[in-house]
Design goal:
2 domains; mainly alpha; flat
């Protein structure tokens, strides 16, 4: 089970990518399918660290430092599953999904909708392996590894992704102004993205 956790994490990231366009388009990226599968991906990445809590509760023995499979056929199954997920699901299937997301963005544009959610979903699907490596790099391998990864993810979102989103919001505001559409929501979004980290620090300091 522990050796299959990385494969499960990759599958969760793929499912998160498939939910990305719908959740962003429906403004439910927090609490929707995307955040749910991202959370489970982090859980599987830090799975050994979570299991390390059980011996401290008096449940089960201590876990081995480097788990291995002694039974040949079980080892073969684990290797086949890992290869299937890495080479087929992540290497090939997600590329096909990303291509259909790109086509969806063109259809959204033709229908007068916003193509950005589908484009971002395409980029996320193409970066599954990179995202996994990034999350794995934040894994402290301690008992609080899951929370550490979540904290690092929040810092990355607030410090790196939010400024990028603010720039995209400025572009969207310009396009809306040119098309004589409401500009105020875009401006408010830009201000929010640029101040989210400071707002969080303010709220924490008030508690």
């Amino acid at each position: 089970m522990m050796l299959l956790a990385p494969s499960a994490a990759l599958v969760c990231l793929v499912l998160a990518g498939l939910n990305f366009r719908r959740d962003v388009g429906g403004a439910s990226i927090i609490g929707g399918g995307f955040s749910k599968w991202m959370f489970w991906a982090i859980v599987f990445i830090t799975f050994p660290s979570l299991l390390s809590w059980f011996p401290s509760f008096g449940v089960g023995p201590s876990l081995p430092g480097s788990p291995s499979i002694s039974t040949a056929w079980l080892s073969s199954i684990q290797s086949d599953v890992s290869n299937f997920v890495s080479n087929f699901v992540v290497g090939k299937l997600t590329t096909a999904f990303a291509a259909f997301f790109l086509l969806h963005s063109l259809l959204d544009l033709i229908q007068g909708g916003n193509p950005l959610p589908a484009i971002l979903g395409t980029m996320f699907l193409l970066a599954i392996q990179t995202t996994y490596t990034l999350l794995q790099g934040w894994n402290t391998a301690g008992q609080y590894a899951t929370v550490d990864v979540l904290d690092s993810l929040w810092t990355y979102v607030a410090a790196t992704l939010c400024p990028i989103a603010a720039v995209l919001g400025i572009v969207g505001a310009i396009l809306n102004f040119a098309a004589k559409r409401p500009v105020k929501p875009m401006i408010m979004a830009v201000i929010g993205f640029l101040t989210v980290a400071s707002l969080w620090k303010l709220i924490v300091s008030m508690m």
